[in-house]
Amino acid sequence: MVLLMTSERVLDRRRVARAALALTAVLLLAGCGSSPSTNFYTLDPVEAHSPSSRGARTAVQVAAVHVPATLDRREMVRETGANRLDVSEQNRWAAPLDEMIRRVLTQDLAQRLPTGAVLAPDAPASATTKRIIVELSQFDRGPSGSIVLEGSWSLLSPGTQKTALTHDLHLEERPNGSGYADDAASMSHLVGKLADEIASALQGGPGAR
Questions:
Q1: pLDDT at 143 over 50
Q2: Counting beta carbons within 10 angstroms of the beta carbon of residue 122, is it exposed (0 to 12), middle (13 to 18) or buried (19 or more)?
Q3: For residue 36, what are the CA distances in angstroms to 31, 39, 89, 94?
Q4: How far is CA 128 from CA 119, 150, 162, 196, in A?
């Protein structure tokens, strides 16, 4: 009789243990199922309205794009108010923001300047290649709901750190919606507008100084 009761108690304990493990597994699966997915975004080139057919005096290369430390992260950032930022864990850039801007700006410029006038970011540069440096102080959605691209860009003389040309920047665009995909689309458009300005200045257009 004692052995029978002991065996039943052991079986009961095993049943309880199995039930507890099953419940834990269900809870873990439920937790995984309810975790929000991570979305990844990138910037895309914007087609030029009127590609240039004029010859370029010299080749140019986007040497560097500098973004503020608050934006130098994979998480997408929005400015929600005075001294406040929203850093989204679920909405991220697919690559470092500064490198994406550099790549897309190069592609945009290549569409707006004559063939061969724009070197790839990491291509070997000749002694006559002029370098473009972009310094951004802001590039995100602000409290007003608009994407703001602010800072400056400079053109360095070949083979030196001497600035041949510099322009201040302030461009804005209101996204079509409130989603992060809308932010990325508007940011792509603003990089295209920056390319328009740089191309115009390099060719002696209305924006040149």
A1: yes
A2: exposed
A3: 10, 9, 10, 17
A4: 12, 29, 14, 23
Residue 81 main-chain phi, psi, to 5 deg = 175, -175
How far apart CA 187 and CA 74 sit, in angstroms, is: 15
Alpha carbon distance 70, 77 (integer Å): 8
pLDDT at 50: 67
- The token duo for 83 is 């001294």
* Lookup: tokens for 130: 């002029």
CA–CA distance, 44 with 72 (Å, rounded to integer): 19
Q: CB under 8 Å to 86, separation ≥6 — which residues?
A: 77, 78, 79, 80
Strand partners, 15: none
If we measure between CA atoms, which residue out of 93, 110, 97 comes closest to residue 45? 110
Q: Write out the two tokens for 175.
A: 């996204």
Nearest to 85, CA basis, from 69, 100, 99? 69
Percent of the chain past pLDDT 90, that is, above it, reads 66
Burial class for 193, CB neighbours closer than 10 Å (0-12, 13-18, 19+): middle
The reported pTM is 0.80
Residues in contact with 194: Cβ distance below 8 Å, sequence separation at least 6, in sequence order: 105, 108, 134, 149, 153, 169, 171
**Residues, the chain, total?**
209
